Amino acid sequence: MTVKGQGMDVRIAPRWKAAIGAMFALMLVVGDASAVEPPRRIVSFNLCADQLLLALADPSQIAALSPYATDASLSVTTEQAAAFPKIDWNSESVVNLAPDLVLSGFTDRPTQAILAAAGLRVVQVALVRNIDEARAQVRELGVLLGHPERGAALASKLKHAEDDLAAVALKPPRTAIVLQREGYTEGTESLVAAMLAVAGLTPPPNARGGIGGFMDMETLLTAGPDVLVLQEPASGATDQGALFLTHPALRARYDETRRIHLPSRDTLCGGPALLEGLGVLKYELQKLR
């Protein structure tokens, strides 16, 4: 899947999923948020910021969201997002709205520079790689937006969802990888890897490190994990990318008792997306028992 933004194409899956700032921990670049008056006109230049704003801000605070806000393949809050204006992928569309806060991702640095030069307050966010960082993120963003109680409440929901998943975790643990189109696999330092660990699904010794990498068919068939985690339907080889996922030998080795489904949109971001993803993973574990 290719996501477009900031004048460039960004591969969410398989090649460059993390590059859109998909999973966010708030990193304030403007000092102590508690000492600043809560913003009244916020623009999101980012997929994950869209969802966090919808969960934590007053509707009246949201001036506009990113073009991805209503894409159901990427976001879990599309129905709520439909009520708000959408920006274009350029700084002009943001400046024209005269926001008092812009939330951007870490790959949006040229736009950040332009917006800062225009006198706008910009807050950049950083990647979230585990559930603890996701909880910290929503608490900090709640403070920034003037709603610390909402951030604390969402952090508590994430904790409860994590505990509920841990209560049904596989024992003993099994190995698993997240397999995407063309043989791309999520890395051991990704948010989805942290989610799987809570469920009792750990990376095999040959798992790709960092945010991920490719695994060839031979390795999967001869030294693959116990379980495959698929992030998109693979009902047929409709294109070259899907051909890998529908390979007869792969399907024979990993039948429905050795594969589960966890949509990509549930692993791209913290906040509401992570909350949904933890629930989906809890349900999917039933297939492996």
UniProtKB/TrEMBL annotation:
Coiled coil: none
Stretches assigned to the Fe/B12 periplasmic-binding domain: 41-289
Domain of life of the organism encoding this protein: Bacteria
Gene3D superfamilies to which the protein is assigned, alphabetical: Nitrogenase molybdenum iron protein domain (3.40.50.1980)
The protein's name: ABC transporter substrate-binding protein
Organism: Afipia carboxidovorans (strain ATCC 49405 / DSM 1227 / KCTC 32145 / OM5)
